[in-house]
Structure prediction request, 633 residues.
Amino acid sequence: MKYKDEYQRWLNDPDKYWLKAAEDIDWTKFPEVALNSSKAPIYSWFDDGMVNTCFNAVDRHVQNGMGAKTAIIYDSPVTGTKKKISYSQLLISVNRLAAAMSSRGVKKGDRAIIYMPMIPEALIAMLAVTRIGAIHSVVFGGFASNELAVRIDDCKPKIIIAGSCGIEPGRVVEYKPLLDEAIDQAKHKPEIRVIFQRDECNAELNDALDHDWFDFQKGFEKIDPVPVGAMDPVYILYTSGTTGQPKGVVRPSGGHLVSLAWGMKNHYNIGPDDVFWAASDVGWVVGHSYIVYAPLIVGCTTVLFEGKPVGTPDPGTFWRIISEYKVKSLFTAPTAFRAIKREDPNGNYIEKYDLSCLASLFLAGERADPDTVFWAQKMLKVPVIDHWWQTETGSVIVGNPLGIEPLEIKVGSPSVPMPGYKVAVLDENGKEISNGELGAIALKLPLPPGTLPTLWNAETRFKVSYLNNFPGYYETGDAGLIDRDGYVYIMARTDDVINVAGHRLSTGAMEEVLATHDDVAECAVIGVPDQLKGEVPVGFICINSGVNRSSELIEKEVVLLVREKIGPVASFKTVAAINRLPKTRSGKILRSTMVKIANSESFKVPATIDDKTILDEIYLALRRYGYAKNKNF
Ligand code: COA
Ligand code: AMP
Prediction:
């Protein structure tokens, strides 16, 4: 089968194409209808289908005689733990927790927040929530309590399931105090709290409010999976937008199952006999799709890795895992490879391991810089597949479909659109522009099954964020181009989102935090290039007149404030106090000009700027921190 034929097959009859793909899923009621356009530009898929996600990820494999097969390999160098969990064992654990939740009144449509590190219990909790038709929202452990509080108030969970701690190299991150503070801050108070106590940290439980994970489940055994409508959400995952209020991306149950099963086979070339490893975190979309759901839906083995690419204990950890568990494909962010390359540029650790099992490396989450791709190709001697997707789509938009036809790799491009996606490059008027020109990347509506139908309780925001600018298209927020061969290049974001170590963050949200400091009059945060993390945020603050405390002290305080309010994951370490921000005469902050100065790009000083001298101050401030190597304006 050729990629072009497959893409054409989809184009000829998308409904037929997706109904055929839906046959890989076990439905309680198979859908008769594929797309429903009656409420365009809001679309839905498989409306009349009924399905359960947990059944497809666990029960059906046990029923098909695969119960003894390993579902999850848990490898945690930070705790020195290794464990294998079979599909039968997983079913027992999931059943027990699901039954316990159900008996406490958690039911179809209720929300459950999961705040857990990379441990099997996180997956068990996710699956148990879907088993009873409830909706989970996993919150990444690197976020501070304020971020957790915002999510609690937005999705109003009936239950919160948390771990007692996460483990970062050199420190134990206690989750319980963060959780308590978040609940204190939030207006909505979840009825039920369940805490999984880890050996590394015993959280103090409040007998009146908190349940211990094991006590909560005592005496419960099982519960049948609850079928839900195909468009009922399986989860809500919050992602950064342009403000401090994250966007609650809604994932529809039916389309999610269909698109992940399709992608595993056709894009990643993974089947039931394979071991797949996504080195990410369950708190991100990569973790949802490729640590948890996709591998389990196809019935293969997934690796759950609690550690870092370097330092746990050395830059050979990835290679140890691949050889020890016979991993066929690794999926991670380029930043992980940059970290390894920095510590082991000649690949000395790679030589210690037999990596003959590895067939491919998949990179996503940020732009795959050519240096990293070439290094990975040279070291691993397997196809290095860059592919582009977003939390919103939940699966690959542009990629290289190894399961259909491995295409030529053009380094710098994630390759070509997958069936389901018509990718267009638009000018500012929404007109499609010709091959090779840079513009806003948009996707022709409707989007395929599994993509977000809306934002949680925020349909207007959904339309404003994604649909209104370019009628008939979904606006991705990325800019780029398509070459003559149809290869797509993703070059930059068109909004205030930056990508730090493969983590999507909002500079707007950081500005909102800086602005809360009593001594800060004005501020701006930009993303600047970083050799390891791809991008890191740098802040500029203007201190209120009359403040006579030292600017160094205030700089330190605002760095701490971002860590407290957003979390360590923001990697916000650099801030400079300056006299004024560069603005247009109408008062718009010239953030893109500041980014150009940081990048040492040459540019013409905007004619609309109100005071050119301020650019020199920005330049000097950036130089002080090792950015803006040359002045080119
Ligand atoms: N819980 C608590 N804190 C966390 C955390 C978590 N789950 N994840 C990260 N943090 C903290 C880190 O400890 C660090 O804190 P520090 O400022 O005290 O050092 C901070 O958040 C920034 O983390 P990170 O950006 O990840 O930097 P790092 O220096 O710890 O590690 C890499 C750098 C490259 C090794 C790391 O980012 C990595 O492994 N990236 C892989 C990419 C990835 O998984 N992407 C996900 C999408 S595919
Ligand atoms: P997230 O929603 O966290 O997955 O982040 C999605 C964003 O990450 C995209 O909109 C892009 O800006 C960026 N991104 C993801 N994959 C790639 C890629 N392969 N190349 C370039 N940018 C990418």
Remarks:
- The two ends are 52 Å apart (CA to CA).
- The pocket of adenosine monophosphate (ligand 2) is lined by residues 239, 285, 364-368, 386-391, 414, 476-478, 490, 493, 499, 504 (CB under 6 Å).
- The mean pLDDT is 96.
